TrEMBL record:
Name used for this protein in its record: 3-deoxy-D-manno-octulosonic acid transferase
Gene name for this UniProt entry: waaA
Family from the record: Belongs to the glycosyltransferase group 1 family.
Phylogenetic placement of the source organism: Bacteria, Pseudomonadati, Pseudomonadota, Gammaproteobacteria, Pseudomonadales
Domain 3-deoxy-D-manno-octulosonic-acid transferase N-terminal as annotated: residue spans: 34-210
Location relative to the cell: Cell membrane
Amino acid sequence: MFQFIYSLLIRLALPFILIRLWWQGRKAPALRQDWQHRLGRVPSIPGPVIWVHAVSVGETIAAGPMVRRLLARNLGATILMTAMTDTGLAQARKMFGNRVTYAYAPYDTPGAIRRFLRRVNPRILVIMETEIWPNMISQCRRKNVPVFLINARLSERSARGYERVRGLAAPIMKSITWVAAQAEPDAERFRRIGVAASHVEVTGSVKFDVDIPEDVRLASESFRTTLGPRPVWIAGSTHCGEDEQLLQAHRLVLAGHPDALLIIVPRHPERFDAVAAMAQELGFQVARRSQGQSASGAQVYLADTMGELMMLYGASDLAFVGGSLIERGGHNPLEPAAWGIPLFSGPHVFNFETIYERLLADQGVQLVQRADDLARAVDLLFANAAERKAYGARALEVVNKNRGALDRVVDGIIERL
């Protein structure tokens, strides 16, 4: 009954969802391309298919090393990567070119999922993290398509939410073939909401197995050369409500380091123009990457391009990870940590609870509450090269000593395949 009500509500909402998609497409035209994929109308794919679903950019980046390992195993299967967002698919294309196939994920109506499965006929579905769609999972079960939840995490708040709709959640959870959880608290929560205990395994976070491709390293070195010896800090994946605070912090940093540069990377492309206007209105000299403007005379460098955050982290001396000064839950801190640079976050990091626990335990991250706290911390590390190097080394050591989850996940997928 709960599944029926859920499906009915999704069907009723679908016209409004499509209208919203069209409206958003005014500023992001890529959203209107291949819109029929959202209804399950994707090109047929011959032969065996491994379907990898990652909701957006962060999950796509996390899936990258796993997909590379699967490609290297020469499994004789097409890898189909899907995402819900245009930025997620753009990131995937940047990472893999023509080595994999791409599509938007279908909306979670029974008809759209059935059409999608009929045309793709996947051998398995690999879902990154916690993208749980009831019809997607139940229709896969009916087609005998194993569903793997990889790098799975579940906060206590989310677990309580699923418990409140146990009638809907429990049958879906029982249909999941394998949960590769990041940590034991995540595993316990998945068992609590209905996943069979024998189907849950703690593998660790594959995000610790972050790799930096050689072309990214070379691009980062080249870009850093253009910046010269000035102190550079970056704010990655920022959200509305944070940019003002970060610009305020940069104003304080400039008081002690007049040649400092802030690279700011908004999470969503539709905010690029607004952030540029805000920085200019506050009196900063702004350069925009998308327009090829040089950062040499700038105080704020707006990275208004897609898929370059990892490269830009490597060109910076310090990093702030966004989504954390507001109650968004934070973004992946391991990308800057893998470069061996000090990193900061705000207090709201519940999306990466386990990762932050390990970073904090080894003093590999500093959590700040407000803009002035961040400015003081940045100022101190800019003034002390030895401490800056030591902080970055501690962050990198946390990454290195927690590697290995990726091998366990890839072996688990192939074993169950």
